[in-house]
Write a structure and sequence with these properties.
- This protein is α+β, with helices and mostly antiparallel strands.
- It contains 2 helices and 2 strands; from the N terminus they run βαβα.
- It has a two-stranded antiparallel ribbon.
- The radius of gyration is 15 Å and the shape is flat.
Amino acid sequence: MGEFNFEYDHLKVELLKDPGKGRGKKGILSFIANKFFINDSNPDANGKLHVAQVDYDRNPNHPFFKVVWKSLLQGIIECTGTDSKYFPGI
């Protein structure tokens, strides 16, 4: 269990098409994600810093760097305001 501080400004995402279906971006879905689902800055416009509580249990069969990556990913997802239900396995 630990705290994760992730400070950033003007975060934008671009959702990409499935590699099997061709190249390109999903413009309208990227716009919706950026506008309604992702916090674009941390601290936010009110100056509040969002701090994530990371609690990832290590599987003894996984390598150390996978544990570090999963812990970082859990903190990033929570700090950006994204719902972790969209990321199974975390």
